[in-house]
Amino acid sequence: MIPATLLMTPTSPYARKCLLVAMEKGKDLAVSVEPPHAQGSRIGALNPLVKVPTLLLSDGTAVYDSRVIVDVLEMVWPEPALIPAQGRERIEVLRWQALGDGLADAMVLVMMDRIKPEERRDLGWQERQIVKIDAALALINQEVRPGQWLVGERLTLAELAVISGIGYVQLRGAELLANRWPNLHAWSAWLHERPSVAATVPVAM
Ligand SMILES: N[C@@H](CCC(=O)N[C@@H](CS)C(=O)NCC(=O)O)C(=O)O
Prior knowledge:
The chain is an alpha+beta fold. The chain has helices spanning about 15-25, 45, 65-75, 85-115, 125-145, 155-170, 180-190, 195-200; strands at about 5-10, 30-35, 55, 60-65. Helix content is about 50%, strand content about 10%.
């Protein structure tokens, strides 16, 4: 099983997480920027859910979604391990991944509603998503300190998933992060000292 190309968009937090995994493993994963609904994009033919990221393997197999992709990357490039193979630490890392992804999911939903014509927006729906975002940020803020790993004594997928989620909130809803969550900001600054994290900060398109 050889990963060939990661089909992605530069702003996708889920794609960023996959890229971070490859970069932290010292692997140069080829990427192709293919917005799912753009003309000429291969995503629709490869992934019935029409979403990025989609990982194309060298035998033509398409793999999705990001959680499965990171599992494949961990399997084919086991060192350094980013997902504990078993036990409580595995559960904790996967739960942090769910939190980071879920933070991004809620931000995507808010953004999708915000770009609708005003009469079709549902502010109650947006507010329910923002409550989730705030609760996730509060939990992260409570648990993190600069220099400390989320699970065990080293970097894992937990940090990569959570920083990807936070980065997406910073991109699409910076007001939800501003002047709050001091531990989160200090921890994020510490993680941004890593070349992988600094090199993948999303930029609005
Ligand atoms: N659970 C999926 C989420 C992927 C996702 O929602 N991707 C968005 C971009 S950030 C997308 O491709 N949206 C296009 C669409 O839904 O049509 C994963 O972890 O890969």
